[in-house]
User: Fold this.
Amino acid sequence: MKVLIIIPTYNEVENIQILIKSILNVSKDLSILVIDDNSPDNTYQTVKNISEMTSNVYVIKRNSKQGLASAYLCGFNWGIQKGYDIFCEMDADLSHNPEYLKEMIEKIKTYDVVIGSRNVKGGKTKGWSLFRNVISKFGSLYSRFILGFPPIYDLTGGYNMWTINALNKININSINAKGYLFQIEMKYKAFKNGCKIIEIPITFIDRKYGKSKMDLNIFMEAFIKIWKLRKNFN
Ligand SMILES: Nc1nc2c(ncn2[C@@H]2O[C@H](COP(=O)(O)OP(=O)(O)OP(=O)(O)O)[C@@H](O)[C@H]2O)c(=O)[nH]1
Ligand SMILES: [Mg+2]
Assistant:
């Protein structure tokens, strides 16, 4: 099993060094690919320096900020070409604890998709305001409602592991969502295409360093275009 952790970055210089170190502490056998969109804060150069001194750490620089979804698609395609068969999405901002990777890797041996979930028993968020919690819970409930309550409780979360088989079934290059909708679309398509999916509880920790890239456009894309996603499958 060749595992690739894909981390999109935009201005994550304080976080990325800590994250790479803690992923490699979990296992030296894991490969890490950072996709940076020419962050003004020097994230690319920082990771480039690490990659030159560390085997299994790779970095791709794109010319401009093109969104989380296209960064992941770039990462998946790179990994497929290099012969990886397990792919893990992870945020750079230390919200996703690498300690969960062990359990995810264990589970991916018998499932197509493993979702790090804030919304199953034992899962939670730490450090979020009441407002952010309400928005997130509302977003999850709203998307599940529109999509007919698929048995996935964290549709928007970004800590997910996929087998190559799942990526092929989803046909990732047909995905054109940009923000949170990307995560919803991937999971919903996996479910509709008969992938075996499991959610494991995680504690999501709010970012300490750097700024959130979440904005109203990302939110509204999910809010409105989810109707199209539903229509395409019914
Ligand atoms: N390459 C690339 N990475 C991005 C882009 N937008 C966001 N990211 C990265 O995607 C990950 C998730 O973005 P966040 O800003 O943490 O979004 P979020 O987790 O919904 O928001 P917070 O919880 O407030 O941090 C982080 O690692 C970001 O650096 C982008 O346009 N290009
Ligand atoms: Mg974040």
Observations:
- The chain has one domain: 3-233.
- Helices lie at 13-26, 43-53, 68-81, 100-108, 130-146, 164-170, 180-192, 216-233.
